[in-house]
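Translate structure to sequence.
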């Protein structure tokens, strides 16, 4: 398979490494395209990969869009003509991405994947919606699974609703705690605060632009802010009710698992 990876950042490089790994059940040739040619060249260096012009007219078996969520619809329109068999994305938002694929790539295999981890923490869970299946998309899914990842099926609506909780809401809660927290000696940390501190370190080691995209794409932060305000304003009775509600939410989550 000749795969064009559009966007040569961390996720684009993860895609290239995954499909070209020795364990991958596909014979893949990878090309990178990026608006910054030096980034594409850096991604190709040290890999068995090449670069192509982002505004060129090269044609490939499949195109994988590893660009910011807000850029996916335009990227689908621009790069669908350069795909012969399939177009997929790994952006993290599925509803608008798949709608754009149906509009501009109706004759191609189509899929949307979301690696639910940063590339330094591979392998992990990968949400997938196969909108139009076929050999190329099947090969990509198999390559991701061969890398030790758990590819699970979902729908665009279910995925995007989940991201309100697991991304937008979670990131807002963690960042708000870090911004509100005062420095304390290590000895003062409780198991809860120490765990939060570790999670905050994880969240803040990434790119602010990526996290800003998540907040723009998904609701969730406002609900966290409202819940924090309710806790801050609660008297003993109201707090107990909120606490029991949180306990019930935890038990409901455990049943889902």
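Result:
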């Amino acid at each position: 398979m000749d795969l064009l990876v559009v966007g040569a950042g961390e996720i684009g490089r993860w895609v290239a490494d995954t499909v070209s790994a020795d364990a991958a059940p596909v014979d893949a040739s990878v090309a990178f395209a990026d608006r910054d040619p030096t980034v594409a060249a850096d991604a190709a260096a040290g890999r068995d990969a090449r670069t192509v012009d982002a505004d060129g007219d090269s044609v490939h078996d499949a195109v994988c869009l590893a660009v910011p969520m807000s850029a996916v619809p335009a990227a689908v329109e621009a790069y669908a003509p350069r795909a012969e068999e399939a177009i997929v994305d790994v952006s993290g938002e599925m509803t608008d991405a798949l709608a754009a694929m149906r509009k501009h790539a109706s004759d191609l295999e189509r899929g949307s994947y979301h690696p639910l981890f940063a590339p330094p923490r591979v392998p992990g869970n990968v949400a997938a919606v196969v909108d139009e299946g076929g050999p190329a998309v099947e090969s990509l899914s198999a390559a991701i699974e061969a890398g030790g990842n758990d590819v699970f099926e979902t729908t665009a609506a279910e995925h995007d609703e989940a991201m309100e909780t697991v991304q937008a809401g979670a990131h807002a809660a963690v960042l708000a705690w870090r911004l509100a927290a005062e420095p304390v000696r290590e000895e003062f940390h409780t198991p809860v605060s120490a765990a939060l501190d570790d999670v905050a370190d994880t969240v803040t080691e990434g790119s602010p632009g990526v996290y800003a995209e998540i907040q723009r794409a998904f609701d969730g932060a406002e609900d966290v802010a409202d819940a924090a305000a309710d806790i801050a304003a609660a008297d003993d009775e109201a707090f107990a009710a909120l606490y029991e509600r949180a306990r019930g939410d935890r038990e409901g989550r455990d049943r889902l698992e």
